[in-house]
Specification:
Strand content: 15-25%
Shape: globular
Largest sheet: 7 strands, parallel
Structural class: alpha/beta
CATH topology: Rossmann fold
Number of helices: 8
Bound molecules: NADP nicotinamide-adenine-dinucleotide phosphate
CATH superfamily: NAD(P)-binding Rossmann-like Domain
CATH class: Alpha Beta
Number of domains: 1
């Protein structure tokens, strides 16, 4: 774990759920929240990957539990919610990061089944997770929700069409929720990263290609999971108390709007 995580004292003692917390960006966000004294429920589908992140947090002196659930299914989400609430109470922070399906694919050859599954894995999953957790947060009249879009949801890119459309949908869903729920003290913000060098991306992209892609960014490097986690933890904290309905391009200066 990085020794150099940003700290926000108001986060200590809060409760967070991180969907997609078992790997990549979500795992780094879970570790960073835990370093800030947040109790973190780490979600994913792969129990071994979840256990690894939970073990890292516990070894670092933090508090974490694993909550395995496929976020495309409302019954599994509801079970996860009950587990978190029974263990610690209603979460203050909901990081809805689970998603997949951005691999380039020709749109006109896309099957209906693939289209639906990528929309489900990103947009519908974000809707179902927020639908499950938000009523408790509304009742408590507080909470910070952070959703996960992509630069692919901001501008056309080589990413697959359903992924791009789903991520654009997440941006508007987040703005819609922010507009509806501000009166309950709930903030909803969205992150739109580009080219974050997760373990998976490191495996998929040869070093030479990484160096080529880095040149497209004003800051001349690829993003790190840390860059996205630091944005998420800031948005979760009271330092962002007057921010809601935003989409932040965590994209090394390659901003979309
Ligand atoms: N990396 C980038 O450059 C980049 C850029 C823009 C946006 N994003 C977005 O950032 C998020 C995280 O991406 P990443 O790059 O960190 O990916 P990653 O390393 O592949 O991790 C994806 C995470 O999402 C979880 N997940 C996926 N589908 C799930 C489902 N149906 N139910 C529960 N968990 C599920 C995975 O859990 P298991 O493996 O345990 O199932 C894993 O924890 C995604 O929404 C992605 O679209 C990433």
């Amino acid at each position: 774990m990085s020794g150099n995580y940003p700290t926000y004292p108001d986060l200590a003692g809060k409760i967070a759920v991180v969907t997609g917390g078992s790997r990549g960006i979500g795992a780094e966000t879970a570790r960073m929240l835990a370093r800030n004294g947040v109790k973190v429920a780490v979600n994913g589908r792969d129990q071994a990957a979840i256990d690894k992140v939970v073990a890292q947090i516990l070894a670092d002196g933090g508090e974490a539990i694993g909550v395995r659930a496929d976020t495309t299914g409302s019954a599994a989400i509801e079970k996860m919610r009950q587990e978190v609430v029974q263990t610690w109470g209603v979460p203050h922070i909901l990081a809805v990061f689970a998603g997949s399906g951005g691999e380039p694919a020709p749109t006109l050859e896309m099957s209906e089944e693939r289209w639906r599954s990528v929309i489900d894995a990103n947009l519908t999953a974000t809707f179902l997770v927020t639908k499950s957790f938000l009523p408790g947060m509304v009742e408590q009249k507080r909470g910070s929700v952070i959703t996960m879009a992509s630069s692919a949801g901001r501008l056309p890119s080589p990413a697959s069409a359903p992924y791009s459309a789903a991520k654009a949908g997440i941006i508007m869903l987040s703005r819609h929720l922010a507009n509806d729920l501000g009166k309950f003290g709930i903030r909803v913000n969205c992150i739109a990263p580009s080219s974050i060098l997760t373990e998976k991306m490191q495996q998929q992209m040869p070093l030479e290609q990484q160096q080529q892609v880095a040149k497209f960014f004003p800051l001349q490097r690829l993003g790190q999971p840390y860059d996205v986690a630091a944005t998420a933890v800031f948005l979760a904290s009271d330092a962002a108390a007057w921010l809601t309905g935003l989409t932040i391009d965590v994209a090394g200066g390659r901003i979309s709007l």
